[in-house]
Design goal:
The chain is α+β, with helices and mostly antiparallel strands and about 575 residues long. It has helices at about 35-45, 45-50, 70-85, 195-210, 215-230, 245-260, 265, 275-290, 320-330, 355-365, 365-375, 380-385, 410-415, 415-435, 440-445, 455-465, 465-480, 485-490, 500-510, 515-520, 555, and strands spanning about 55-60, 70, 90-105, 115, 120, 145-160, 160-175, 180-190, 330, 340, 395-400, 535, 545. The chain has a six-stranded mixed sheet with strand order 2-1-8-7-6-3, covered by helices on one side. The longest helix is centred in the last third of the chain and has 19 residues, at about 415-435. It is elongated.
C-alpha cells in the first residue's frame, strides 16, 4: 500500500479557505492510501469515485445503523443517502492512520482462530440483520482465506468553523493487497445510548440547513404557527379546536370531499353534497393549487431515470447503480471545463415530494411547509464554486438535469397540459363560486352580479366555520410561498437566473394563475441525445445562456474527456 499521510487530509487551504474542491477527474494522488482516497472522494461528495475504492462484494458496517451494507449497490445507496443528509460543508479530517501487516483472511475455511469479547468464535455465518446481534461474525465465500491488510483510521469531522462536537470516531478496514480495494469496513463513531441511524442524520441535516440558510426559518415558523392556529388555538379562528371538534365538522369535510374537483356536482351524481357554491369554489381551487406542485416532482429524484438510451441497452434499474453514477458524476471537456449535475444525479430530500403532494390534497399547508424548510437546495452556479477555479484543469460548471434522468412519475409532472388543466379548474372554481347552483338561489343567493346575498351568506360561514376559515388561511400561505421552488426548477433546466426573469416573476408574484402559466411555458429539460444544443458557457458568470442555434458538437458526440452521461 502507498504510505499514509497523517493529519494532512481534507484540511482547509490557508489561502482559499473552505472545504477542498471537487475532484476534476477519475484519478487520485498516488501518494494517498486507498483509505485516504475514500475519504478524499467523500469530502468532495463524489460518491462514484468513493465507491471505486471498494470491492464489488464489500461488507460495510456503520455501527450507527442497525444493519450492515453488503455489496457495492447497497453501499452506494447508503452513501448517497448520507451525502444528501449531511451538508457539503462537513468533511472528514484523518488524524492518524495505522497500517497493519499482511495476514491471512480469517473468513470461512480459515484455520486462524478469531476472538471477540475474550471468547473464541468458530466458523459461522453472521445472522445480523436476520435477528442476530452485532457480536456475530461474518464470513465471505469470495475471499476464502485470502490475505488482507488491516488499516485503522482515527478521524473527526469539521466544517468551515472548525471541529464539530461529538463528531469523531475511528474506522477499521480490510484491504485486499492484490486489488488494493477495501473488502470490509467498520465505522465506530462516538457511542450513543441508542442507534440513531437515519433519524440522527435527518436531525443533523435539518438543523444544519436551518443554520446555513436562515430563510428556511420563515416556512418553519409559519408551519409551527399554522399547526397551532388551525388545530389547537381557541379564539384565533372561529369554531372549535381539533380536540373538541363536533360531528358537524366531520360531516362538512365529508361533503366537501364528495364534491372533489366538482366532479359529482357537475355530473349530478347522487353522492353530490349540497353546499354553498363559494365554499365549494375555494375548496376545489385550493386543491387545484396544491396539485400544481406535481410539476416540481423533479426536485426529489432517485437517479435511476427512465432509460432512453437503447444503444447501451440500459433501461431503468438494469444498469448497476454505482456504475451509472461513475459515468454521470463529472465530465471534463477538452477546453478544461468540468461539468457536474445539479446536486447529484440523485436528490433525496428529507421529506419526499410525491407523498407531500398527495398529503397536500388532505392537509394542504401542514404538508407543504415542512417540505420547504427540509428540502435540499440545488447546486448554485459559478458564484458558489469560484474559489475552486484556481485548482484543477478548469472552471466548474453545473449542467442541466437531463430528461433521461427523470423518474417516470417526474416525467408526468413535465406534461405541459398540467398547468392548463389546473388553471382551467381554477377558472371554473371562480365561476362556480360566483354563479353556480342557480337552481338553489333561494338557499345561497343568486349570482353575485345580480345580488350580494351570496357573498353575505359566505361571509357568515367564514365567521363561524373553522374549515372555511382554514381554507382562506391556506390561500395566504400558498400565495406567499408558491414561488419558493421556482428558482431551483429553473436552475435544473440549465437556465440563467440573471436573464429570462419575467416568467419566474409571474410564477412568484401572481397567485395560482402565475404558477399555472409557469408550468405551461417553462422550458423543457434537454435530452442527452442533443447535448448542450443551443447553449454555450459564459466564462464570467458560469450560467448557461441561450445564444442562437450553435451546437456544441464536442459534447453531443461524447468527445469530452468524461464522455456524455449514460442511461
Amino acid at each position: 500500500l502507498p504510505p499514509p499521510q497523517q493529519g494532512g487530509l481534507a484540511r482547509f487551504d490557508d489561502e482559499l479557505g473552505g472545504p477542498p474542491p471537487p475532484l476534476r477527474n477519475q484519478n487520485f494522488d498516488n501518494n494517498l492510501s486507498i483509505v485516504e482516497r475514500y475519504y478524499e472522494a467523500w469530502n468532495r461528495r463524489n460518491i462514484a469515485l468513493a465507491l471505486s475504492c471498494f470491492s464489488n462484494n464489500i461488507y460495510y458496517d456503520d455501527t450507527q445503523f442497525s444493519k450492515p451494507f453488503e455489496g457495492k449497490d447497497k453501499l452506494a445507496e447508503h452513501l448517497i443517502y448520507v451525502a444528501d443528509c449531511v451538508p457539503d460543508s462537513f468533511f472528514y479530517v484523518v488524524d492518524e492512520l495505522s497500517v497493519g501487516s499482511v495476514q491471512r483472511g480469517g473468513r470461512r475455511g480459515s484455520s486462524v482462530p478469531r476472538f471477540r469479547n475474550g471468547r473464541r468464535v468458530g466458523d459461522q455465518r453472521s445472522n445480523r440483520g436476520r435477528g442476530g446481534g452485532r457480536d456475530s461474525i461474518r464470513f465471505d465465500d469470495d475471499f476464502d482465506g485470502r490475505p488482507t491488510v488491516s488499516v485503522s483510521a482515527l478521524w473527526h469531522v469539521e466544517n468551515e468553523f472548525g471541529p464539530l462536537p461529538y463528531a469523531r470516531g475511528c474506522s477499521f478496514f480490510k484491504i485486499d493487497p492484490n486489488t488494493n480495494l477495501i473488502v470490509e469496513g467498520y465505522e465506530f463513531p462516538e457511542p450513543a445510548v441508542i442507534k440513531p441511524g437515519s433519524t440522527g442524520l435527518r436531525t443533523l441535516s435539518l438543523a444544519s440547513k436551518l443554520i446555513e440558510e436562515p430563510k428556511r426559518l420563515l416556512p418553519f415558523t409559519a408551519w409551527v404557527a399554522y399547526i397551532y392556529v388551525v388545530f389547537f388555538s381557541k379564539g384565533i379562528l372561529p369554531g372549535k379546536d381539533f380536540f373538541h371538534t363536533d360531528p358537524s365538522t366531520w360531516i362538512e369535510v365529508q361533503n366537501l370531499s364528495f364534491n372533489f374537483m366538482f366532479i359529482a356536482p357537475a355530473l349530478k351524481l347522487p353522492m353530490a353534497a349540497k353546499l354553498h357554491p363559494m365554499l365549494e369554489g375555494v375548496f376545489n381551487g385550493l386543491l387545484a393549487w396544491a396539485a400544481m406542485f406535481w410539476g416540481f416532482l423533479s426536485d426529489d429524484r432517485t437517479g435511476f431515470g427512465t432509460g432512453y438510451d437503447r444503444e447501451l441497452e440500459m433501461t431503468g434499474r438494469s444498469a448497476r447503480y454505482y456504475e451509472r453514477l461513475m459515468q454521470n458524476q463529472e465530465q471534463e471537456f477538452d477546453n478544461g471545463i468540468v461539468v457536474v449535475p445539479p446536486v447529484s444525479i440523485t436528490k433525496r430530500n428529507l421529506i419526499p415530494l410525491l407523498p407531500t403532494v398527495i398529503g397536500m390534497q388532505f392537509l394542504t399547508s401542514a404538508f407543504f411547509l415542512p417540505y420547504l424548510f427540509a428540502r435540499t437546495s440545488e447546486r448554485r452556479y459559478q458564484s458558489d464554486y469560484e474559489r475552486f477555479d484556481r485548482r484543477g484543469p478548469g472552471p466548474l460548471r453545473v449542467r442541466p438535469l437531463y430528461r433521461e434522468e427523470l423518474d417516470k412519475t417526474q416525467v408526468l409532472g413535465e406534461w405541459k397540459g398540467l398547468g392548463i388543466l389546473l388553471g382551467s379548474i381554477g377558472l371554473y372554481a371562480l365561476w362556480w363560486g360566483a354563479g353556480g347552483r342557480v337552481e338553489d338561489a333561494k338557499d345561497f343567493g343568486p349570482p353575485i352580479w345580480e345580488s350580494g346575498k351570496r357573498t353575505t351568506e359566505f361571509m357568515k360561514i367564514l365567521a363561524n366555520d373553522r374549515i372555511a376559515s382554514t381554507i382562506i388561511l391556506d390561500f395566504w400561505v400558498f400565495g406567499f410561498f408558491q414561488g419558493w421552488l421556482v428558482d431551483d426548477d429553473w436552475r435544473r433546466r440549465g437556465r440563467s437566473l440573471e436573464e429570462e426573469s419575467f416568467l419566474r416573476n409571474v410564477a412568484k408574484f401572481i397567485p395560482f394563475f402565475g404558477m399555472a402559466a409557469y408550468l405551461t411555458f417553462r422550458p423543457s429539460y434537454p435530452s442527452i441525445k442533443d447535448g448542450f444544443d443551443e447553449e454555450l458557457y459564459d466564462e464570467r458568470t458560469g450560467f448557461l445562456r441561450r445564444r442562437g442555434s450553435r451546437r456544441n458538437d464536442d459534447f453531443s458526440r461524447g468527445r469530452g474527456r468524461g464522455g456524455p452521461p449514460r442511461f
